[in-house]
Prior knowledge:
Number of helices: 2
CATH class of the largest domain: Mainly Beta
Number of domains: 2
Radius of gyration: 21 Å
Shape: rod-shaped
CATH superfamily of the largest domain: N-utilization substance G protein NusG, insert domain
Amino acid sequence: MSRKKTVFLYAAIALIFVFGIVFYRIHIGSGENIVAVKADGKLVRTIDLDTVTEPFSFRVEGDGYNTICVERGKIMVTEADCPDKLCIRQSESGAFPIVCLPHKLIIEKIK
């Protein structure tokens, strides 16, 4: 292999590596996993899921109640007194936003 081809090959590999790191940092590994818990349009709590060291739970009450459990990297509605309990099933999937329409609860990712 000639010297020019070798240099070109190493430069192409380095360029692919750099683009891979940039893509990862922007789209996947930004390190920001912040959610907002809102009830009836008002902010109840903001949680950075990446900094949770101990699991905890809290209850949001209004016309009814939702119990929300938080672990590192994960948030779920584990209990609710709404008739359909869709918020519990929705939170099991890990998708956002998590919504409980009867209680006007929204858990959404903000970063």
